[in-house]
Design goal:
By secondary structure, the protein is α/β, with parallel strands linked by helices. The chain has 4 domains: about 110 residues, paz domain (Beta Complex), CATH 2.170.260.10; about 40 residues, no CATH class; about 170 residues, Response regulator (Rossmann fold, 3-Layer(aba) Sandwich), CATH 3.40.50.2300; about 110 residues, Ribonuclease H-like superfamily/Ribonuclease H (Nucleotidyltransferase, domain 5), CATH 3.30.420. It contains 13 helices and 23 strands. The strands form 8 sheets. The chain has a 4-stranded parallel sheet, with helices on both faces. Helix 9 links the parallel strand 15 and strand 16. The longest helix is centred in the middle third of the chain and has 16 residues. The chain is globular and about 90 Å long. About 20% of the residues are buried. GO terms for molecular function: RNA binding.
């Protein structure tokens, strides 16, 4: 086919070009902007605005926001050129520009340095157009972005075609005359096929023992998990203030009934009482729940909290914090549930949550029915690896390498993952293999691949006879370099 030009439509979040007063009212739900901000609200607004470029509505000038004034606009003043007199900012704008400021109880936008600050009224500053929003989007923003960019294949094809027509590659003098390249405006045709979906196998005690997915969809009706997990010690914490007082108890009761009906073993009694808590005390509540359960179970080997069911706060943004505390600090397996879904007590929702819980406690929901080529015939481990880099413009934070590997055979449904921080924007995974010299043991081998291979043998009783390694995120120019280094690292482990 020769050279090909790959074109796609992409989307990115940008700041909305509106007045700063409208921005804070909209994004922080401040209905009354005539009142002074609390210290907490001021800190939130400062964090959101810092680094944004604004344009003045009364002059053709732009500034970059460096902070907010501590005092409200009504209390700000500056020294005049005579070095003796003081003038308030409110009075200055009235006399200089005949502008009577309305939101004088709000802090002023600060630009310039700390030693020579420039204070600007929020109501006279408009966010400059075309600025990327590089911070993490909240749940509402993600939903809005997906809604705006989701296109049917035919509509996407039309959008790409319009882009090609606008770019006019074939009439571009540099492309056509200097390089002698002609770009067709029609899409290329390639041979393709749709692979048949694999048959799924469920437990023999269910009324239906197999499932044949249609268009990527199937359900658990009349089916049971192939291997139901066991939950003996659990509890629940509700951080939602809108739910009825008795609803968390009913929610857990129906969820447990669903888990039992699908083949799990689940103790219906929590190890410590179900509780509701203030979302402002998330960390303290989670730590306290961990301590209480440990005290109740007596810190005996194998006797620990296996599952913490969490009904999330009504406002978004707490999920990441909860997962960080539970998974990385307390070592608790958690299942988070949205309060609006919990309130419905929906059978379908319970079914979906039960599938997640089963996998988290060591069970398996289904396996492939029949043999898998290049996997079933001999013990095989499947690896997946990728490196995530910091956002553009970040020149200091580490890149994060992640490696996962299958932990069962021949079904290949369980996996274990490892992560490792490495040098900034380094694409080659540094910790696949590493070694160090021990005074007593001599050369000691280590690394993520070795650790996962040992886990595979412990889990299956076999050494893998075959390794399948999927590596994502490598450009064509780096592929050979990454292949040589990482293949060598894997061979050193073997």
């Amino acid at each position: 086919m020769g050279l090909s030009l790959n074109i796609d439509v992409s989307a990115r979040a940008f700041y909305e070009p509106i007045l700063v007063t409208d921005f804070i009212a909209k994004h922080f739900n401040f209905r009354e902007t005539s009142r002074p901000l609390s210290d907490h609200d001021r800190a939130k607004v400062k964090k959101a605005l810092k680094g944004i470029k604004v344009e003045l509505t009364h002059r053709t000038r732009s500034f970059k926001i460096t902070g907010l004034s501590v005092e409200p606009l009504s209390k700000l003043s500056f020294t005049l050129d005579d070095k003796r007199s003081q003038m308030s900012v409110v009075q200055y704008f009235l006399e200089k520009y005949n502008i009577r400021l309305k939101y004088t109880s709000l802090p002023a936008i600060q630009s310039g340095s700390e030693s020579k600050p420039v204070f600007l009224p929020m109501e006279l500053c408009r966010i400059a157009e075309g600025q990327r929003y590089s911070k993490k989007l909240n749940e509402r923003q993600v939903t809005a972005l997906l809604r705006a960019t989701c296109q049917r294949p035919r509509d996407r094809e039309i959008s790409i075609g319009q882009t090609v027509t606008r770019n006019r590659y074939s009439s571009d003098g540099l492309v056509k005359n200097e390089f002698g390249i002609r770009v067709e405006e029609e899409l290329s045709f390639v041979d393709a096929r749709v692979l048949p979906p694999p048959m799924l196998k469920y437990h023999e005690s269910g009324r239906e023992r197999t499932a044949n997915p249609q268009s990527g969809q199937w359900n658990m009706i009349n089916k049971k998990m192939i291997n139901g997990g066991r939950v003996e010690f659990w509890t629940c914490v509700n951080f939602s203030s809108r739910l009825r007082q008795d609803l968390p108890y009913e929610f857990c009761r129906q969820l447990i009934e669903m888990c039992l009906s699908k083949g799990m073993q689940f103790n219906p009694n929590p190890v410590i009482p179900i509780r509701s808590a203030n979302p402002s005390q998330i960390e303290n509540v989670l730590v306290d729940t961990h301590k209480q359960s440990a005290a109740k179970l007596g810190n005996q080997p194998g006797q620990q909290l296996q599952l913490l069911i969490i009904i999330l706060p009504d406002t978004s943004g707490a999920y990441g914090k909860i997962k960080r505390i539970c998974e990385t600090e307390l070592g608790i397996v958690s299942q988070c549930c949205q309060p609006r879904q919990a309130a419905k007590l929906s059978k379908q929702y319970f079914e979906n949550v039960a599938l997640k819980v089963n996998v988290k406690v060591g069970g398996r929901n289904n396996v492939l029915h029949g043999a898998v080529p290049l996997v079933t015939d001999r013990p095989t481990i499947i690896f997946g690896a990728d490196v995530t880099h910091p956002q553009p413009g970040d020149d200091s934070n580490a890149s994060i390498a992640a490696v996962v590997a299958s932990m069962d055979w021949p079904e290949v449904t369980k996996y274990r993952g490892l992560v490792s921080a490495q040098a900034h924007r380094e694409e080659i995974i540094q910790d696949l293999y590493k070694s160090h010299q021990d005074p007593k043991k001599g050369l000691v081998h280590a690394g993520m691949v070795r650790e996962l291979l040992i886990s595979f043998r412990r889990s299956t009783g076999f050494k893998p006879h075959r390794i399948i390694f999927y590596r994502d995120g490598v450009s064509e120019g780096q592929f050979n370099q990454v292949l040589l280094y990482e293949m060598d690292a894997i061979q050193k482990v073997l």
